[in-house]
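Table 4 source record.
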Amino acid sequence: MIEEPSTLYAKLLGETASITWKELEPFFAKGALLWVEQSLDLIAAAEAMAQDEGHKVAAWLAEDKLAKLSATQALDLVERNPEMWAVVVKPWILVQERASA
């Protein structure tokens, strides 16, 4: 049986956008960016945060699948300028590098 996505998942998916590092820099400076590893579904992470599913978020944080964007990561993004996806779950912006086609 295929499970239908939740209404919140669909809403967050609709609010997800492609973004450049230059557009994200001011939010990095404010400490508002969370990095989502490619192995984790960006929208599922945003949904869990929006629904205050602390156990899921804590597990991802412990596994480094979700983390505050570090200065080292920021420098890498400046140098490479990859395509990224972002979605807002106040007060955070969750970002993830787009998978190469």
